[in-house]
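Regression test attached.
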Amino acid sequence: KAGVTQTPRYLIKTRGQQVTLSCSPISGHRSVSWYQQTPGQGLQFLFEYFSETQRNKGNFPGRFSGRQFSNSRSEMNVSTLELGDSALYLCASSLKGLAGDRWVGEQYFGPGTRLTVT
Amino acid sequence: SQQGEEDPQALSIQEGENATMNCSYKTSINNLQWYRQNSGRGLVHLILIRSNEREKHSGRLRVTLDTSKKSSSLLITASRAADTASYFCATDAGRGSTLGRLYFGRGTQLTVWP
């Protein structure tokens, strides 16, 4: 089974521009989450989508947005890029399920998109 | 904050030795997961342990979970140079949560010398 794929792998943008990153989850996985990783802040949760609906959102400004399509593929968009948006953006997919009364499911990460804002 | 903390921040050992990393967290969880990250790359899932489990094995990996102390440990036996990476523990939001958000610590940087 193919893993989580992310495109593009590397991106260089200029301040003020916008960018769209894409994530294809593992086949059959309906939950997709996005994380930002920087040396200063570590791994920070951006948002989670499940069945095309945003289920949870982290503490990021409105310039960060996302969506999920009916085939579970997801995109995230960052508008008006700032230097501080330079980071590794990671997407994770999960086959969520109930075990008793608890949600369980490993999250599998893609290779990430390295965004550099100049 | 639920964010976990790994300890130590850095660990340097020789090939063949065992490596132990610890993780502490603050609130109740459903599951705890351990990940490995090679420099600047994606996270590789290593193991998931549920809150009602105390120990789990996968190859050379052994994970323990003590929910009373809100802590977990990852043991890598007979380390190899290829195990050199950052290791992260990740927790969820606890009982009743249907959310996929994971909370990560800063990680332990493991260096295994040949």
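Expected vs. actual: identical. The two ends of chain A are 37 Å apart (CA to CA).
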